[in-house]
Design goal:
By secondary structure, this protein is mainly α. The chain has a domain of about 50 residues. The chain has 3 helices and no strands. The longest helix has about 35 residues.
């Protein structure tokens, strides 16, 4: 581990348990987002560069998003 990682772990240990859980959830979310960007977005962009004819126009995507039913929280 790097010195920065060790310092972060030590700082995390100094927090109350509830805050440790909150930080752990945030780190997991960031890690998942980074994986998605690396694995899905970059590969999708590479596919587009290889064959732009397979691209879906932004207008179609936005229309699809707008046509989705509202979630319970949005009602």
């Amino acid at each position: 581990m790097t010195k920065l990682m060790l310092e972060a772990i030590e700082a995390l240990r100094q927090l109350p348990a509830a805050q440790q859980d909150e930080v752990a959830r945030a780190v997991l979310h960031l890690t998942d987002t980074e994986r998605w960007l690396r694995d899905e977005v970059i590969s999708g962009h590479a596919e587009y560069l290889a064959d732009p004819s397979k691209a879906v126009p932004a207008e179609d995507i936005l229309a699809h998003i707008g046509a989705r039913p509202q979630t319970i929280a949005e009602r």
